[in-house]
Design brief:
The protein is mainly beta. It has helices at residues 27-33, 46-49, 119-127, 131-139, 391-402, 425-432, and strands at 14-20, 60-66, 71-78, 82-88, 95-101, 105-114, 154-164, 167-181, 184-190, 196-197, 201-225, 239-242, 245-249, 256-259, 262-265, 271-273, 278-286, 290-298, 301-311, 318-319, 324-328, 338-345, 348-350, 363-387. It is elongated, with a radius of gyration of 46 Å.
Length: 445
Amino acid sequence: MLWIVWGIAWLGAATIQRSIWKPGETFSEYLQRRGVPLQVLRSISPEDSKYLYEIQGGEPFFELIDDNGTLLQSLIPLGEEMQIALSRQWGSGAYRFDIVPIVHKEVHDTVALSVRSSCYRDIDRVTNNPRLGFILKTLYKRRVDFRKLRKGDRIVFAYRQKSRLGEPWGQPVFQGAVIRTRGKDHFIFVDRDGNSWLKPYKEVKTVHTGTKTVYETVTRKIRTLRNRKGYIRPIPGARITSPFSYKRWHPILHRYRPHLGIDFGARRGTPIHAVNRGRVIYAGWMRGYGKVVKIDHGDGYVSLYAHQSRIRVHRGQYVSRGQIIGYVGSTGRSTGPHLHFGLYRRGRAINPLHVIGKGGSRYVVTEVTERKKRIKKFAKTEIKKVPIPGAEKLKKRMETLLHSSSVKGYRWREIADRLIYVDQITKHKEASNETGYDDYGQTDR
């Protein structure tokens, strides 16, 4: 690994220092803390200055420090691909600001090991990269319980990882893995979209939609009256001003009350007709309803006609269907001329609209079968097996390592290993022709 500090002559030792950006610290505060003149801020264009706010607190960055504690170079990431490069210039000691790509390489590695203590400790012991164990657990979520892995269980996985200055950079990308536990092999293969599959292929669902003509036999029931002389309306053509309800706001009492009937609006003196033939069982005054007529129609049906101005029938009289039994009025508790019509079956109030004009419950039910043609929409799901590129070859490689007892894996370097000695800086200066950085001030191992 080599760092070349742009345009500075320095004999002695310099070390790379991995630092953590302090949460809430601004770029100008960092410059002051490192003894960098704030004049460097004037060289930052308005377009680049907005990126200073993208520096994340708690994120690692790298500094090159000489023996006197002078900052020679600082590389501060802005995401995984770009970084701020702050470097001390040759001779003048002034600092240069730039935003440049992060120089890194990509490590492709296959790890093979046997469990000795725990999955996480063993992977960290072999690779010095603890993130790998936690990502592997995420891939096997609800498939393998890592707490139940036993000593001697075998783990093999392949991944790629960006490497920056000898240590992992960004998130590792897994390509596949296999865990042998309790005599069973659990494979995982990861496609380019990051989705995991149990086989070296993925199942892609394709839904085909369309329409088709279908013929079907439909049987429906038709109800017809046994007797054409069914129940009629008491006032033909009159409008309904208040329907049947178990909860109605009473216009006089100003509270909720049941309304066990139907109100027909009509002028005073409009004739009221018997809804069907029957015998008058009440004709007189009834509290709240005023002048009332009640008729028993047989089969458990009784009709009630309230608020009449004048009654035309008497108790015990037989009436025919449509016969005038009285006239619309506003007697009793009423807000104006209307007919309150109620219908009862076996002593219980029912909605008259379910009966009048239909002949009560006296129906004949017949079935009619028809052959109908209709256009039917359909959706057909097709599952296609699509091979994951390189998965078959990876499976064979992992199977070979699975049946081996070897321990294999790329070991990431420790931070303490990265001591950089900057000797013969003049030679580096001449190589760069004093024009800028070599690889923006860094190369990777």
